[in-house]
Structures are given as structure tokens and as C-alpha cells.
Design a protein that fits this description.
alpha+beta; seven-stranded mixed beta sheet; 14 strands
């Protein structure tokens, strides 16, 4: 007997949003394991899913910038038995009603972001507009002999808090001094964002290798003249059986001094060359197949090009499409909103 015949119409008033029970969580994550289990076993994925809900970013909210915030939508999934019946559309429609006022005590919510893995059309039709910010730089993993002598210092977890504070201070200054006539929006690259990715990385590496990466990134230069990157190791498949998509993601790139002085630019090229070598070496040491850096601006593109390091420019068309549902005034599209810093740290 086909029990699906008794399913309610997707427009039924009897359908509503609610938080799942612990048993429903287990069923949901068991089904989602097929798409997002990565290199973990099912029991490990269930354990990781519960673990990540307690990490501050997932627990407390997302994207605070002054008194304005955004909601992230992640892991939209429909059980295969119930697909193509309109339930996902109904779910997203209900979310769109609730999110503008959800957690209103935290301040004014200006929108909702998501990163589509099914192209640009589905979510666009449901109110999440795809932004043209989906390009990346890719490099191959390459062991670099004597990399400690390249003039870089590796970033440890205890370094992250101060680096994120320095980064945020520069962002606030740049946002307030801009002459752009567009509204500028940026998810603040704070410590909570970095640690969510790092905790996910550590959990997976513990299960796969029995150890965790020690280095969280690399920095070179002196204060007010530094370049640094923060990275994370992502294993979509087990490195011994399905390693092709495993990636060292650059979560965030910071260039402190954006002077156009030719001498300064040459120093930045040398600094970036050392940083990228360190990233390529880290990827090689941890059996990752690529280094990926999202949304490089014109300055960063120019510096990377001048390093002479072989790399590829790739436009993402189907996966990780940055999309925004706007709750403020106006269209909320790129004609009025400039979405800055669409780097991997903001992915959810």
C-alpha cells in the first residue's frame, strides 16, 4: 500500500514549522548523511551534527555587524520519498515569513543568506537572489622544501582572537569611509565564524587520522604591513578511498596595507608568494587535493598573478552560490547592495 497517497497538500494549513524532537533530529541527519556526510561514517556524522549545534556560531546566531544581522539557511533537504511535491517550497515560504522577526531581541535583521548547491534557479524563485560573487582561485598542493624559512609565521588557535579583532577594526573603518553609493554588506569575519569551521575540521581529522591540524593559517610582515590567511581542512571523502574533492579552504585573506606604492606592492607579492607556498605545503602534508580561495578582489587577484605561482580562476555555476533574501528597503540585489567579503568563512 502506498502510504504517500495520504500526504497533505503542500499548501495545507495543517503544515507548520517546528523544531524537531531528538528522535526526528536523528532521522533527519541520517537521511542528510548521503549528501553531507563527507568522509565520516554515519555514526560519526550523527555525532558531529550534534557537536556542531553547540559551537557558538550555530548556537547563538550569525553575521553580527553593529546592530544589524542576517540569518543563515543551511542544509535544506527533503526525504526522497517526499520530493517533487512542493514541500521544500512550502518550507522556504514559511521561513521567509518568520526570519525577519526571528531573534528580534538581537537587533534588526536585514536579510537571509544561503549557499546553493543546486544552481541559481531554485532558490531565486523562492526569494534568495544569487549574487555574482561566485569565483575562486584554485592552486594545487605542492610540498615546499624548507617552508619555515619563507619568512612566514604559522597561526595557532590562540592567535586567532587578536587577528579577528584587528580584521574587524579595519573592516569597520573601511565601511564607514567608503564613497560608494551602494549599501555595503559584509558578514563580520569574527572568531566564532573561524572556530565553527575549525571545530568541524578538528572533529573530522580526529576520526580520520587520530590527530588534528596544528596550524590554522599563516601570517607574514610586521604590524600595519601584514598579510595573513586563515584556513581549514575539508574532507568530502576519505583520503584513502575518495580523495578528489578534499580541499584546503582559505577562510579569510587580510591585506593590512592596500597602498598602491610600487615598492609596497612588490613586498606584498613576496609576502603572498610565501603565504601561498605555505598553504600548498599544508595541503600536501594533509593529503588534500586543492587549495581554494573565494571571491578574490582586484587587489588580491593582481598580487596572486604577480607571484608567478600557477593557479586557476574558476566561476562556480552550480555549487556554493551565494544568495540573499533581502528584508530591508529596495531590491536587495547587486544594483543597490554590495556584498563584500564573500569568502569561505561566511559559508553556512
Amino acid at each position: 500500500m502506498d502510504n504517500t497517497l495520504a500526504l497533505p497538500n503542500p499548501q495545507s494549513p495543517d503544515l507548520y514549522l517546528t523544531h524537531p524532537t531528538s528522535r526526528e533530529y536523528e532521522v533527519i541527519y541520517s537521511l542528510a548523511f548521503i549528501g553531507w556526510g563527507d568522509a565520516l561514517t554515519l555514526p560519526q556524522f550523527l555525532e558531529e551534527s550534534a557537536f556542531l549545534t553547540a559551537v557558538p556560531l550555530a548556537r547563538d546566531g550569525e553575521g553580527h555587524l553593529s546592530e544589524v544581522f542576517t540569518h543563515g539557511v543551511a542544509s535544506v533537504f527533503t526525504d526522497s520519498k517526499y520530493r517533487r511535491r512542493g514541500y521544500a517550497t512550502r518550507l522556504l515560504a514559511e521561513l521567509a515569513k518568520i526570519l525577519p522577526c526571528w531573534q528580534a531581541e538581537a537587533g534588526r535583521c536585514i536579510g537571509s543568506i544561503l549557499f546553493s548547491d543546486i544552481g541559481k534557479t531554485f532558490y531565486a524563485k523562492r526569494g534568495w537572489h544569487p549574487f555574482p560573487l561566485n569565483n575562486q582561485i584554485e592552486l594545487d598542493p605542492i610540498p615546499v622544501p624548507n617552508h619555515p624559512q619563507l619568512g612566514i609565521r604559522f597561526i595557532l588557535e590562540e592567535d586567532l582572537d587578536q587577528l579577528c579583532e584587528d580584521d574587524e577594526a579595519m573592516i569597520r573603518e573601511a565601511m564607514t569611509s567608503s564613497s560608494s553609493n551602494k549599501l555595503r554588506m559584509m558578514i563580520v569575519p569574527d572568531l566564532d565564524h573561524m572556530l565553527w569551521h575549525i571545530r568541524k575540521e578538528e572533529f573530522a581529522c580526529d576520526k580520520i587520522f587520530g590527530k588534528q591540524p596544528h596550524f590554522k593559517g599563516a601570517v607574514t610582515g610586521e604590524p600595519n604591513d601584514r598579510i595573513w590567511v586563515i584556513w581549514t581542512h575539508r574532507y568530502y571523502g576519505h583520503p584513502h578511498t575518495n580523495p578528489l574533492d578534499n580541499t584546503l579552504y582559505i577562510l579569510r585573506v587580510v591585506i593590512e596595507n592596500e597602498s598602491t606604492d610600487p615598492g609596497q606592492r612588490e613586498r606584498q607579492v613576496e609576502q603572498m608568494r610565501a603565504i601561498l607556498w605555505a598553504a600548498q605545503n599544508e595541503a600536501a602534508e594533509w593529503d588534500l587535493r586543492a587549495v581554494k580561495l573565494w571571491d578574490p578582489g582586484f587587489l588580491l587577484q593582481d598580487i596572486v598573478e604577480r607571484t608567478g605561482i600557477q593557479h586557476r580562476r574558476v566561476e562556480r555555476e552550480d555549487e556554493n552560490i551565494a544568495s540573499l533574501m533581502w528584508f530591508g528597503e529596495g531590491s536587495g540585489k547587486e544594483d543597490m547592495v554590495e556584498w563584500l567579503g564573500n569568502e569561505k568563512y561566511g559559508w553556512c
